[in-house]
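Training component of the fellowship. As part of building independent skills, the fellow (R.M.) carried out the full modelling exercise for a liganded target. The chosen ligand was MTE. The inputs are recorded below so that the supervisory panel can assess the work.
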Amino acid sequence: MTERDGTDGDPSIQIGDDAVAGDAGESDAPGDASGHRSTRRELELRAQARSGEAIPVDEFKKRSRRSFLTGAAGVVGAGLFWRWVQNRPVDDGIPDVIRDQLERNEAIWAALPARSAPEFDIEDASPIRVNGRIGIRDEIDLAAWTVRVEGPDGELLDELDISTFEALPQRDLVIEHKCIEGWSHVTHWGGARFSDFHERYADRVGDVPYVGLETPDGGYYVGWDIDSILHPQTLLALREHGEPLDQAHGAPLRLASPNKYGIKTLKRIGVIRYTHERPADYWAERSYDWYAGL
Ligand SMILES: Nc1nc2c(c(=O)[nH]1)N[C@H]1C(S)=C(S)[C@@H](COP(=O)(O)O)O[C@H]1N2
Ligand SMILES: [Mo]
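Fellow's submitted model of the complex:
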C-alpha cells in the first residue's frame, strides 16, 4: 500500500507547519497594517528609531512597562478563567462546563429524526487508507477468530465465528467515511447490517440503550447508542472494495457507518456487548465527543 499509514495517536486535526509559520510571519511583520493607531509620540519615536536615534531611556522603560502590564493582564485573565474551568466539578475527567456543552450537543443529535447519509455509486469508491492500529497491531489467526456476544447482565449469549455473519443478508454500502482528523473517503463496504444481526438477540436483551464493542485484546473500544447502531447504514463489514478485509482494515469483521466519525468504526471486533450503562469509549475518554455523530 502506498497510502499513508496514518497516525494511531491523537485523531485531532493537525495544523501544518506552514500554516503556523505563515501566521507568525504576518503578525510579527514590522510596521504591520494591524489597525493599531499610533499616537503622535509613537510616530516621533519610530522616526527617531529609523534615523538611528536612540529612544530615551525613560520612554523605553515606560513603553516596556505598559506592554508588560497589558500582556500580564491577558495572561492572568486567561489563567484565572482556566483555573475556574478546572475547579469545576469533574465527571469522566471533563469539567462540568465543558461536559454540559457536550451533553447539549448530544440532546440535539438524539432529538433529530434518524437521517440517512448520501450513498454513492460503486465506481466512485476506491480503497481506503489505513488509519489507526490501536488494538490491532499484531496480526491474528483469522481462522481461529471468534466474537463474544454478551448480554446486559454480563452473560455470554454467543461465541460466533465468521460463518454467522456471512449467512446474514449481504449488503453493499458505498458511503463517505469521515475521520475526525479532517479527511474523508468514499468507501465501498460489504457485509451485514447490525440491525439484521440484532434480530437474533432482540427478544433476549430487551430494551437496551447501548452496545459496546471491543477489539479481542481490549486495546480499542467504542460505545454506540442503540438507535445509531440499528440504523440501516451501520454495517458489520466483512469486505472493503469488494475484497475480504485485510488485517490493518480490521479483518475479519469491523464496523462501518457514514453517520458517525471514523473513531466509532471499530476494526477487528472481538466483543459485542449489550448494556444498560453507557459503554467505555477509547476516544471519549480522551475528551472527544462520546456521540461523535455526523
Ligand atoms: N481497532 C481499531 N479500530 C479503529 C481505529 C484504531 O486505531 N483501532 N481507528 C479508527 C479511526 S480514527 C478511523 S478513521 C478508522 C480508519 O479505518 P481504516 O484504517 O480502514 O481507514 O478506523 C477506526 N477504527
Ligand atoms: Mo479517524
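The panel noted the following from the submitted structure. Residues 1-6, 12-36 have pLDDT under 50 and may be disordered. DSSP finds eight helices and twelve strands in the chain.
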